[in-house]
Amino acid sequence: MTTPNKILAFAASNSSTSINKMLVTHAAEVLKDEIIPAANVTILDLNDFEMPIFSVDREQATGIPEHAQAFFKAIGDSDVLLISYAEHNGSYSSAYKNIFDWCSRINAEVFQGKAMVIMSTSPGPYGASNVLKTANDSAGFFAADIRGSISVPNFNDTFDAEKGRLMDTDLAAELRAQLAKLL
Ligand SMILES: Cc1cc2nc3c(=O)[nH]c(=O)nc-3n(C[C@H](O)[C@H](O)[C@H](O)COP(=O)(O)O)c2cc1C
Question: Which of 49, 80, 90, 172 could bridge 67 with an S-S bond, Cβ 3.0-4.6 Å?
């Protein structure tokens, strides 16, 4: 098997101070520094893919927006996908769900068979585990080859935002164990 080297990472959040973006950026750095040294990392920001709210009427009238086409293509061009999910009211953020819905109209196999590690974090003790479970449970419908997943609870106590890395040693080891499943 050839080593995957095009890593695409994003937080499923449109917050400019997204803790999930911090986590997924850290995960991508660990992957490049420790697991796949030749990796080429691209980090997407959902704000660059803002679109009108999906509706079947809008789709019929004006088709699928270019941002959705570009997002879908970015996934297609990658070897590995890292996503960290923000949890809003037990589920996906609206920003992510909108992009996902538009992309699913190009092809329901949104993740295009890519090897993935998915994660989530929140300031609370459950680490956004509801949304992570939803993403895991539905993976098969969207051609997601999920190799590993990790929920990071109590973000403010477990992650050093200044240094941009997990400071909880158990979680740091678990992240590396999950990422290693990509090989
Ligand atoms: C509208 C809204 C709903 C939220 N619902 C949840 C929730 O259901 N579970 C949870 O753990 N955190 C919830 N939170 C807190 C988020 O975990 C927190 O805002 C976190 O920073 C979101 O991730 P992000 O910074 O990557 O956007 C909610 C926050 C907002 C603004």
Answer: 49
